[in-house]
Amino acid sequence: MKKLITFALIGFLAQLIDGSLGMAYGVTSTTLLLTFGIAPAVASASVHLAEVVTTAASGVSHIKFGNVDKSMVLKLIIPGSIGAFVGACFLSNLPGDAVRPYVSTFLLLLGVYVLFRFLFTFKTNEEKSTKPLSTKQSIPLGLIAGFADATGGGGWGPIATPVLLAKKGTTARKVVGTVDTSEFAIAVSATLGFLISLGWEQVNWFWVGALMIGGIIAAPIAAWFVRIIPAHLLGSLVGGFIILTNARTLLNTWVSSSSTQIAVYAFILIVWAAAIIYSLLQGKKYNQNRNVEVS
Asked: Which sequence ranges are marked TM in the entry (predicted)?
């Protein structure tokens, strides 16, 4: 019973982060399962089974709060589902560990750009001039993000969210809601691939159930949270989280000194905190100016 509560809480926190920032449910949950000695393919299969339910709850919640660009969802789910299915079927034969640092480097740079854009160049009226996602953009993005999601136990959000946020004119709230909603199809496709290659008997249903319970409870809270946060602040939160998570991958791969890792983490956290404070001050200044114009 104690383990069930513990993992339900972890599922809750993972979904709260994922539903608020558009990423991290799979990465958080898979990392936890791997620490308990579960094989990577089985851990990823268990997480994706749980995500079938949690992403459905998250998608419904985001749609209810108006956080979803439905046309963007439709363009992402087909290539994303194909990538996830292929990645799940061939997980055991893929050099995921070798490729991951290079993907993280690219995403970290995107995170820096996202943070910079929402701090210094983002204008509130951008939300009214969002450009549609083209087919040429959605196909490679969906294939790569879906493939990475299945092979790494989490990758749909960490790849799709920063790429879409880097697109000028894209609303942070709609990106998070769209990525979370489209993830349902990716979770279903990856799960089918895992069941074909592994079989039902390999799935750890205890972990699946615990993660589902926590995720279902957190989904509507996270969707509401996204709805009320100003775009510039949400962009800063997401950008900083992208930098932190990908820096962790790079440090664990290329830096063996624990003191160096701590110093880098401290620097990132300080910069991230400063960015959040700056975003709050900018939001306050914007609201004051708008009140003056109205009066």
From this structure: 34-60, 72-93, 99-120, 183-200, 206-226, 233-250, 262-281
Whole-angstrom Cα distance, residue 290 to residue 283? 11
User: How far is CA 249 from each of CA 105, 129, 170, rounded to the nearest angstrom?
Assistant: 9, 35, 27
Q: Which residue has the higher pLDDT, 207 or 67?
A: 67
Return the higher-pLDDT residue of 139 and 37.
139
Task: Give DSSP secondary structure letters for the chain.
Answer: -HHHHHHHHHHHHHHHHHHHHS--HHHHHHHHHHHTT--HHHHHHHHHHHHHHHHHHHHHHHHHTT---HHHHHHHHHHHHHHHHHHHHTGGG--HHHHHHHHHHHHHHHHHHHHHIIIII--GGGGGSPPPPPHHHHHHHHHHHHHHHHHHS--HHHHHHHHHHTSTT--HHHHHHHHHHHHHHHHHHHHHHHHHHH-GGGS-HHHHHHHHHHHHHHHHHHHHHHHHS-HHHHHHHHHHHHHHHHHHHHHHHH---HHHHHHHHHHHHHHHHHHHHHHHHHHHHHHHHHHHHH-
pLDDT at position 34: 61
DSSP 89-103: HTGGG--HHHHHHHH
- Measured over the CA atoms of residue 157, residue 161, residue 164 and residue 170, the dihedral's sign is positive
Tell whether the model's pLDDT for residue 6 goes beyond 50.
yes
pTM: predicted TM-score of the whole model, two decimal places: 0.68
Let me know: does 142 contact 80? Beta carbons within 8 Å.
yes
Q: What is the mean pLDDT of the chain?
A: 77
Burial of 201 (0-12, 13-18, 19+ CB in 10 A): exposed
Residue 287: predicted pLDDT: 62
Go through the chain and tell me how many residues it has: 295
Which residues are CB-neighbours of 255 under 8 A, at least 6 positions away? 261, 264
Judge contact between 108 and 243, C-beta under 8 A.
yes
